[in-house]
Amino acid sequence: MYDPELKSYYDQLLDLADYTGWDLREACIDAGIADTTFYRWLKGLTSPRFKQAQIVAEYMTTYAR
């Protein structure tokens, strides 16, 4: 189904974290993303790059809780 709303990588990661049972911060740290990077995403100072989002998404789907 077509969704006219474009979601940021961060919003997509939040949705995936909810679906897989992960806390996004924990998944980021376990996947090798720096804690400070996660907090920059959280505050909206920066956004995840495609590769970062892909790494975290793959980690969460591989190790779904």
- Helical run tally: 4
Strand content: under 5%
What value does the Rg take, in angstroms? 11 Å
**Overall 3D geometry?**
globular
Structural class: mainly alpha
- Average pLDDT, all residues: 94
Number of strands: 0
Specify the helix fraction band: 55-70%
Order of helices and strands: HHHH
The poorly predicted ranges are: none
- How many domains? 1
Question: Major beta sheet, specifics?
Answer: none
Distance between the termini: 27 Å
Write the layout of secondary structure elements.
Blueprint: H1 9-20, H2 24-30, H3 35-43, H4 50-62
Helix pairs in contact: 1-4
Describe this structure as you would to a colleague.
The protein is mainly α. It has one domain. It is built from 4 helices and no strands. It has helices spanning 9-20, 24-30, 35-43, 50-62. Helix 1 (9-20) packs parallel to helix 4. It is globular, with a radius of gyration of 11 Å. 20% of the residues are buried.
Task: Provide a short characterization of the protein structure.
The chain is 63% helix and 0% strand.
